[in-house]
Structures are given as structure tokens and as C-alpha cells.
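@channel anyone free to eyeball this complex?
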Amino acid sequence: MLKQDGQSDTSELRPEKKSNRRFRFLPGDAMIIGMIVVFCIVFWAGFFIYQKTTDKKVRYVRITQDGSVTMEIPMDKFTEPTEFYLPGKYGDVVIYISSEEVYIKESECTDKICVKTGALKKIGDGAVCLPCRVVVQIVGGKGDSGNVSGSSDFGEVDAVAK
Amino acid sequence: MRSDFSKKNTAKPGPDKSSRKRQIYRFTKMAIMLSLALVLSVVEAWLLPQGILPLPGWKLGLANIAILVTMYTVGKREALMVAVYRSLLILAFGGNIVGFGFSLLGGVAAGFTMYVLIEIKHVSIFGVSIGGAAMHAIGQIVVAMMFAKSIYIVSYLPWLMVASSFAGGIIAFLSIPVIKALDHIGNEMIQ
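replying in thread with the prediction:
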């Protein structure tokens, strides 16, 4: 802290603390950025490896509404494009599904982030509509039948296909 | 005689005239910063409705200039209060509950991170702001997971964290001239 003995009154009145004023880029900043980058790389790589190692070939579209899975069907079954109208307590959503891609077509939410996310094609893609509490994601599954066991990415739900 | 009387009336044994003046000064500055934060969030919604990057949930966060400036020119506790009051007031002015959750938990997480980082000797305003932004991203993801009740959202964290840190760097850069300018104004006001 800078000490100024000459000015007694005003410097005592001055409310701000000056000791923490550092406006130049310092090594600590580089360390913080490095930590963030390392964290992101490790996180992303772990996620990537986890997805690659589990052999899942068939793409399932999973729709989660307010925490519970309402639909989980292999995308290949949609030879004709279908639009689902999904009514909900917080808002209604229209979801377009074809064998190629899935996207949220319309939503009752205000920000429309889910619609702007666009088409989902690969395993791991997802669109979220937080105001409507709807998550649409493409997950990988093993079987070629309608059986959905083992398709849960994180093992948190036993899905029910409708 | 008069001085004795005034001493009896004060609530705490300590505060004399100058420290009370200081309290009022701090409180006023905090109030100005709070209103500035609100104005900046409204202005940002006008200017950049989409954000700059096409990442959902990401924005520049111009209101964080006000919070960062509060942290440096008024005090750390006041900055935390500005962050909390800002999210409450935005909710009152017609925000939705999801945005409130993002703003509150993200703001508190970022606030506490900056609270710690600002005292570390080798960390400048850039590190403070970037660290706060990264923690804000974690807070946001936690809120999103709570609302959607889906753990899947966590896979989005790295993208959001890198983009947020970028925004944090810009915010720090924009805050420096404001803090320097406020120093001069503050000294004139208090005399």
C-alpha cells in the first residue's frame, strides 16, 4: 500500500483500498487461464473417449421432459419424417424427427435457444429447452431391435420406449 | 457538551463523523453501480440479443463491468451484494425464473471466486475477471442441470467455459479505464 504521510485527512477518508490494483497482465493470470484450458481439455477428452470406447452404433433419439424420459426410439425407424407435438406443464414443443436428423421445430419458450440449436445428427448431440424443461438428445444404443436396454449414456434412467 | 450528546446517540461506540460520511459514500456508490449494472444488462439485451458467438447461454455480460468496478472501487462485499440484487431486480422487472437461476447462482459463484482472487498478489484484474467468468459458467451449467433434470448438459461445459473466459477478459479490459476514472472523481467528491 502506498503510504502518504503528508495528506492526513483526505487519505484517511478515501474509502477504496488501493493495494489490490493490478491492471497489468501477471503470471498468475496465465496460470488461471492455463488451469481453465487444462480443465476443459481433460473434461472434453474424457467425454470424447468415453463415447468412443463404448461401442454404440445405432442412434436413438431420446426425449426427456422434466427429468423423465418420455420417448426413446431408434432414429432408423423414422423412414418418413415425423413431427411430434409434445405438450408439457411448462410449455409445448414440436420436435421433428427423420432418419437423418432431429431438431426442435417450435417451442413455446421465450428465448428460442432450442430452435436455434439446429439439427442434431451425431451421437452426443443434443438440444435443450430450459423454459419447457425438455432435453432432446441422440444417444447410442447397441441392439437393432426396439430394445433400449443399455442405451443410457450415464446409467441414470431405465428408459421406457413408447 | 454537544459532543457528549452526539456520542450517546450513536449506535456503535466507534463511528465519528468521517466514518459515517464514508459509509454513506460507499452506500451511494454501490447504489449507483447497481443501477448501472441494471442499465447495462438492458442495453446489452438491445445491442446484442444473440450474443456474438452462436453458443446458447453465452453472452458478453456487460453488467459485469459494473460488478468488477464495484469490487475495485467500493469493496468486495458490496460487489457481491450488487450481483445478488441485480438478479433479484431483473426477476422483478419481468425476467423468467430460469434466467434468474442462471444469474443468481452464476453471479454468486463468480462473486466468491473474484472475492478470493482479488487478494492474491500475482493475479491482476484479468485473472480476477477470467476466473470469475469460468466459475460463472460452472454455476450456469449446474442451474441448467437442475432445471432440465438431465446430466447430459454437462458435456456443454468446456465450450461454455472457454467462451465465458474470453468474455471475462474483454470485461476486464473494459473495466480498467472506468476504475481509473472513478479514482479521480471519488477524491474530489469526498473532500
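from a first look: Chain B touches chain A through 51 residues (CB under 8 Å).
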